[in-house]
Structure formats: C-alpha cells, structure tokens
Amino acid sequence: MHDRLYWLAWQLLLPGSAARVWSLVSNLGSLKDAWYAKDSELTNVLRLKSPAAKRLLERRANTDIEREYDQLVSEGIEFVCYHDDKYPQSLRTIFDPPPGIFVRGELRETAPGVALVGSRKSTAYGRKVAGQLGYDLARSGVTVISGMARGVDTAAHEGAVRAGGYTVAVLGCGVDVVYPPENKIIMQQIIESGAVISEFPPQSSPEAWHFPVRNRVISGLSRCIVVVEAAERSGALITADVALEQDRDVLAVPGNISSRMSKGSNGLIKQGAKLVESAADILEEMGLYTLFPVEDDTSDTMVGIKLSTDENKIFNILCSEPMHLDEIIKRSRSNPGEVLSLLMYLEIKGAIKQLPGKMFVQE
C-alpha cells in the first residue's frame, strides 16, 4: 500500500487528535510502522488505558484501509495528507497541524485567506456586515474562510459566493454532513466554487468538542482573522485567541455599544485589534493595496490603471467637480451597496478621491 493510505488510516482512527498522530510519527518512525506496531507498543506511545486502548486496537484490526479509500473516492471526497502538494502551506506552520484533511470541492492556495468569524446568534447588522465583507474580499481576489455555522459564518460564505469568488468552509463534522441542516444549498454552492474541508472523517457528527479543534484550522489557513460580531463568551473569541497564538493578525468590526452581541468584538478593539469599517481596512492591514479583479473587458481610462467595466462606469459618471453619493447612485442606476464597493475600489486605486459630506471627485 502507498504510505499516504496509512495517514488516512490514522486520521480515521484518531480524528481531531493531531498531537497523538504526530506522537506516533516521532516515536515509531512512520505511520506505516505505527500501523504494524505491537499492541503494547502502540498503547504505550499513545498512553491509552483500557477500555480506550481496547477499542482502538479492535478498530485497527478491523479497518480495511484500501476499502475506506475507495469509499471516499466513490463519494467524491478527497483525502489530502500532510505530505501532499495540495496540503495548504499556511496550515503546515501551526502547532500540531492536521495530519490530513477531507475535502469536497477544489482546495487551492493561490490567494491570501481572510477568516470572517462571529456569533451564531448574530444580529441583522452582523449578518449584513459579514455578507458585505465576504462579497468585497472575494471580489478583490481574497479567499474567504469561515466555519459555515449559522449567522456570521453563513453570511460571509454567501457574500463570497454572490461575488463569484473563492471561499473555504472548515467544518466541525464530516464533509458529507450538512450542519446546520438549513445550509444544504450554500454548502453545495461552496463545493462548486470553493472547498468544504474537515479533519473529521465522513459521517462524523458535529460534537461540541470538534469546534475548538476546527477553529485552529480556520485561523491556520488565514493571513488574518476578522471578528465581525461576537458576545463576551462567543466561540469567535476562541478563534481570535488561537489566531494570536499562531501569529495571525486579529481585526474586529465595531458594533452597537448597547448590544450584548457586540461586547466581545468591541472588547477586542479596546485590547488593540484593528477596527474594520470596510474591506479596504482588511486589505490595508495585509499590505494588499493593488489586489483587485481585472475583467477581460477593461478600459485604460487612466494611464497605468486598469479598471473593470463596472469601475469604469462609475468613474465616467464622476467629473472634475465633486458629486454627492446619492447623485452617483441615481445616475448609475445600480444597487447602493454595489456603488459603495466600486467607489471604495476606485479610491484605493487612486482613481478618485472622497471629500467631506459623501462627495466624490476624479483624482
């Protein structure tokens, strides 16, 4: 058997227990050697006592690795182990990285990733902001990463999908398990335009202890983590703590000071997290000042600057005299949110300048 099948075997036997798998590698030489190690040797390395040791040994004896692999293939699930080229480089750098991950969709690492996280019990404000950030970041070519949970996570993924961008959902269950159940459609959309991944084997249920384990993967895949909305005891704050341990930048969106759902995110800002008002703040923090989509139909309206068709439309509406935002929206006949996003991109590209009173002018 190929060595990578032994990585699959131990991922199936010890899901979410990366430290134990790496202990097998360091103490027994390889996962292949661990697979054929004596019972006593294996249980000593893993420090297992009965009945846990008995259960593991029975599962090892009864596991047909090749059959398990064939089952994954038949279900359209890819297994990517630590030594595969497809394994995300950013994930290799964290403490106890997953020895392997299960994937549905296309796993790629061609663009920097930003994690958008927040409360499951989010407010309409939190979901709206998450959706807009997801849309703007994805449209800028950034990979949007989240956990596909209710609330902020789902809104972030939906925004990225709406923008036609690339998004990755990291699950605390098997990649063949739809959780929450109402996310069946968005999960399929993510698979078609991005990837759904998990270090937990297929059919794994969403148990409570899985999610803190999952959170380290979300931050591990990302260049920075943005807490969109979180209460004082939100799981998103756990992700933020893990991100700091992994030397990732933590940013936060300010919220209503009267809302308990904003106490956690506002608290992060008080502690030094960068305040986020738009995707531009996130791009600036990452040093990505020129990461913008360029469509096939482009126009060199400004020397040395490429504008997309939509950006060029807004640019041409403006003139040397300042114009109010409401007038720009009226003339463009476009959605106000879309106009605001286009104005943001034009401003960062240096094509236009914003003046006080929501006035804009060509630069």
Describe the secondary structure blueprint for this structure:
Elements: H1 3-13, H2 18-28, H3 31-35, H4 39-46, H5 52-62, H6 65-74, E1 78-81, H7 89-92, E2 100-105, E3 113-118, H8 124-139, E4 143-146, H9 152-162, E5 167-170, H10 184-193, E6 195-198, H11 210-220, E7 224-229, H12 235-245, E8 249-252, H13 263-270, E9 274-275, H14 279-286, E10 299-302, E11 305-307, H15 309-317, E12 323-324, H16 325-332, H17 336-348, E13 352-355, E14 359-362
Parallel strand pairs: 3-4, 3-7, 4-5, 5-6, 7-8, 8-9
Antiparallel strand pairs: 1-2, 2-6, 10-11, 12-14, 13-14
Helix pairs in contact: 1-6, 8-9, 9-10, 11-12, 15-17
Write up this protein.
Residues about 290-305 have low confidence and may be disordered. The strands form three sheets. The protein has a nine-stranded mixed sheet with strand order 1-2-6-5-4-3-7-8-9, sandwiched between helices. It is built from 17 helices and 14 strands. The chain has three domains: about 5-75; about 115-285, Rossmann fold, CATH 3.40.50; about 300-360, Arc Repressor Mutant, subunit A, CATH 1.10.10. With about 375 residues, it is α/β, with parallel strands linked by helices. Helix 8 links the parallel strand 3 and strand 4. Helix 1 packs across helix 6 (about 65-75), helix 8 packs parallel to helix 9 (about 150-160) and helix 9 (about 150-160) crosses helix 10.
